[in-house]
């Protein structure tokens, strides 16, 4: 078994053993979630939710989803152990990463977390977006999507003492309503502007050779298996929406539910405190001595299942062509033989050999690095939203996708059928 163990982090994380009651686990979180957690805990313990009346199933579900939303956006699972204690990202962010630089590597700012005076200051340019101190201010306001900072004020100066990451770093973006990179959160949308490799390469704890490896990953991509098998071949960051009813998660269908993969990512990739084991990959990882992951998985999964794929914007496709394209999808294109059902995937009944991916053959095959060694047919709801396509991003547009299928599977589609099929894909 490959075993990776890290010593417990030197500083207390606010959540200490022993655990008296499930509700106490949430003591580090904002009030709204504490309330939600208390409702859930009361329900789980068979107690009542308040004045003698138990929460209705719908209310409990809503509370669970709200709790999951807070976890998705703000929970680091104690991964400051990796991002602060090991990678020392707080030092480089606090001293060298001004907001302009942060936006340039794809980090997003939640405009709704900005108080009026900060909004005004950005508008009239009295707030300096070329100063790392401004980044620290934004982190203090909890306004940098997916990055959680602890800021301490010493002698009137704000200092970033700890930093960690959350799921929202890669799986949320913003609507750019205030400025490019600054707007309202769009949870579940893949951040295809994010350059995780370039961000990790900023760490002062990484040597030049490794910086080169991370810098080669590119925008919108991450390799979630690099630190396991040492291979560097990233995949595109996929959306975390539109997964309800799909019981095969990840490009390779490694898990039957989202929670499987969330545990893997939280521990193995983000560096959260807890354990993950995957016998098919001969993998067993434990970080720290306490488990800050397991208790959060049900709520986190409930939130993602509540995120539906965004509908195609009005006017973004030709309706008549899309109707013709549907016939191509189901007929001459043979797409429906794999992209079947409401979610446009046969994932619940089968996975596919590597050769069924139009991104293959590649060396090494991404499938070969996974637990299943196969590919899942990618669900297509919201596919208009997240170019480039295929796990390696090798198809830049939906036209490229269709042309690739047409050539590789010798479908013999006419150029009219190709255009119609593309319009249909844009409508899903
Ligand atoms: C550093 C970027 C990054 C972070 C942080 C991250 N992910 Fe991901 N996520 C990825 C990549 C890349 C994949 C694709 C891996 C694959 O399918 O093999 C992925 C896959 C997924 C999938 C599978 C989607 C599908 O179509 O089956 C889900 C769900 C998901 N992530 C949720 C989460 C959650 C929840 C968290 C926080 C616990 C998280 N991710 C943290 C990059 C990230
Ligand atoms: C034999 C099964 C099969 C057939 C037939 C098939 N697909 Fe796929 N499709 C897949 C698999 C598997 C993937 C994932 C490939 C990857 O990511 O490497 C995929 C991926 C895609 C993607 C990329 C989605 C994304 O988010 O990256 C699109 C778009 C797509 N297919 C459209 C089509 C169209 C259009 C047709 C018909 C011309 C078609 N597919 C026929 C199995 C199939």
UniProtKB/TrEMBL annotation:
Instruction: Cite the residue spans of the region called Disordered.
Output: 1-22, 349-372
Q: Where is the Cytochrome c domain?
A: 320-428
Please report a single Pfam family linked to this protein: RoxA-like_Cyt-c
Instruction: State the UniProt keywords alphabetically.
Output: Heme, Iron, Metal-binding
Q: Which PANTHER family match?
A: BLR7738 PROTEIN, CYTOCHROME C PEROXIDASE-RELATED
- Indicate what this protein is called per its UniProt record: Cytochrome c domain-containing protein
């Amino acid at each position: 078994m490959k075993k990776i163990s890290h010593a417990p982090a030197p500083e207390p994380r606010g959540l200490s053993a022993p655990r008296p009651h499930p509700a106490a686990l949430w003591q580090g979180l904002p009030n709204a979630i504490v309330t939600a957690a208390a409702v859930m805990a009361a329900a789980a313990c068979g107690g009542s939710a308040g004045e003698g009346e138990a929460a209705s199933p719908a209310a409990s579900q809503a509370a669970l989803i709200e709790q999951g939303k807070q976890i998705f956006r703000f929970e680091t699972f104690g991964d400051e152990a990796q991002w602060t204690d090991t990678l020392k990202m707080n030092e480089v962010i606090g001293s060298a990463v001004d907001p302009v630089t942060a936006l340039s590597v794809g980090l997003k700012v939640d405009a709704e977390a900005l108080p009026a005076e900060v909004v005004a200051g950005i508008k009239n340019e009295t707030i300096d977006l070329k100063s790392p101190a401004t980044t620290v201010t934004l982190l203090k306001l909890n306004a940098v999507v997916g990055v959680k900072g602890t800021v301490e004020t010493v002698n009137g100066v704000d200092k970033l003492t700890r930093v960690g990451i959350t799921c929202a770093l890669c799986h949320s973006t913003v609507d750019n309503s205030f400025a490019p990179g600054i707007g309202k959160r769009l949870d579940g949308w893949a951040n295809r502007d994010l350059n995780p490799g370039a961000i990790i390469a900023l760490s002062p704890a990484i040597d030049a050779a490794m910086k080169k490896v991370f810098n080669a990953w590119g925008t919108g991509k991450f390799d979630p298996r690099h630190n396991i098998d040492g291979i560097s071949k990233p995949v595109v960051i996929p959306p975390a929406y539109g997964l309800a009813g799909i019981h095969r998660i990840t490009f390779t269908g490694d898990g039957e539910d989202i929670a499987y993969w969330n545990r893997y990512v939280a521990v193995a990739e983000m560096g959260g405190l807890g354990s993950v084991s995957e016998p098919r990959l001969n993998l067993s990882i434990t970080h720290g001595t306490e488990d800050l992951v397991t208790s959060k998985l049900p709520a986190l999964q409930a939130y993602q299942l509540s995120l539906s794929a965004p509908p195609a914007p009005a006017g973004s496709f030709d309706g008549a062509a899309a109707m013709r394209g549907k016939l191509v999808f189901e007929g001459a294109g043979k797409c429906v033989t794999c992209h079947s059902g409401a979610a446009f995937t046969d994932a619940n009944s089968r996975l596919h050999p590597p050769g069924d991916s139009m991104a293959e053959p590649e060396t090494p095959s991404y499938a070969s690095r996974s637990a299943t060694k196969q590919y899942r047919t990618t669900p297509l709801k919201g596919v208009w939203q997240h170019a480039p396509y295929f796990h390696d991003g090798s198809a830049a547009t939906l036209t490229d996708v269709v042309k690739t299928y047409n050539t590789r599977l010798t479908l013999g589609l006419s150029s009219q059928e190709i255009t119609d099929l593309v319009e249909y894909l844009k409508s899903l």
